[in-house]
Amino acid sequence: MADPEAPPLAAPLSPEEMWRQAVQSQRGFQSSPSSAADAIRQRPATIPPGAAAGDKGPKVGKGFETFAGVQVLDKDGRRAAFGADFFGGGGLDEHAEARIVRGLEKNGPAAVQHGRMIVVVETDCCPSCEARLTAYAQRKGLREIEIHVPERESLREAGKMVTPKTASTTSLMDTGKPTTVRKLRSISVPPPVALAKLDAFRITLLNQVNFYSSEHQAERQLATDSFVGYVTNRLFNPDIPEMMIWNNAYARLTAVERELRHENVKGAFKELVLARLQYLRALRQYLTWKDGIEGAGTAMITAICAVAAVLILGAFALAADAIGTALTGLLATEQATATAAASARVAASLAQFDAAIASTAAGGETVGLRIAQIEVETAVDEYVEIIMSR
């Protein structure tokens, strides 16, 4: 529901207001003349030859011309963006909706989580335009698209409605039948594919943490509850790591789940990378105690491959690809260059961390490992800011 106290620029327009202010009025002033009589628009305060009182007046514009308005609302019903344009000829890129989407990408908000889009157009969206609108909505976090069209009853057949385009081109005529706006259909916008990919990796990582922490718990019980286990452990192994070593990994995975629930790709990616780091840290401590230094190193290499960081990068790259498709020209080139450089830095920092944690002899903290983790965190921050900035 819209906020009645919203500032004027944030107050939403109803579909009827969008029709009058952004579609019908623009057809009246921007479309090409539909007939000689329609050229009156080019000569203000001029009456067409032969005009008489009571005439209905001419249609406005050509039939192929299509005008549209698009409004983006946030989850509270406030207007976050608005665009209007028209199709006057050309290919799919010149359709009104396609032109509007390009304008919104350039000047609109970076994200409108759980918002919706209202489209008022003179005829239902073509498949190409629907795909563009859906892709834009998906990138911005919108959950629904409403398509509205003009409507008028036929002058010849009572109860029958003319086509939306006819209703629009004749809407300025004195037909005796009002032109209204009706909701044609709604489109449910699926969540970004990147979210599903990140969630799949979260589940994989969670399973790994559950497996090794459960094994850790069992080993602790065996080492402390039986006399033989206790003596063996005290004679041949260092102190058993506390179960709390897994807490940071679980906390980060909980944070990942929270960010995914809020459909925050940026936050989910960052927390997932950090969850992986904390998991490997805990696993290294546990395996060093369980298998010894040499055995732990071999096992860590296997564990690192099982939760390869490239899978996280691949999932988040979907968000980068989606954003990149909306950019053109120099901006797209600069964005692609910056993205590639930042992605390479993340990959290199993760490889450095993996190598450090696999080769470190002791289970405790080392300077090299800490430096490697800081580099990962810095690289990830830089990467997400570049990707999600546009």
Question: Can you describe what's shown?
Answer:
The chain is of the alpha+beta class. It has two domains: 15-34 and 59-188, Cytidine Deaminase, domain 2 (3-Layer(aba) Sandwich), CATH 3.40.140; 193-388. Helices cover 56% and strands 10% of the residues. The chain contains eleven helices and five strands; from the N terminus they run H-E-E-H-E-H-E-H-E-H-H-H-H-H-H-H. A five-stranded mixed sheet has the order 2-1-3-4-5, sandwiched between helices. Strand 1 (66-73) and strand 2 form a beta hairpin. Helix 2 (96-107) packs parallel to helix 3 (127-140) and helix 10 runs antiparallel to helix 11. The longest helix is centred in the last third of the chain and has 42 residues, at 265-306. It is elongated. The two termini are 28 Å apart. Residues 227-232 and 319-332 have low confidence and may be disordered.
List the topology elements.
Elements: H1 15-30, E1 66-73, E2 79-87, H2 96-107, E3 116-121, H3 127-140, E4 144-151, H4 164-169, E5 180-188, H5 193-225, H6 227-236, H7 247-261, H8 265-306, H9 309-324, H10 329-359, H11 367-388
Parallel strand pairs: 3-4
Antiparallel strand pairs: 1-2, 1-3, 4-5
Helix pairs in contact: 2-3, 5-6, 5-7, 5-8, 5-9, 7-8, 8-9, 8-10, 8-11, 9-10, 10-11
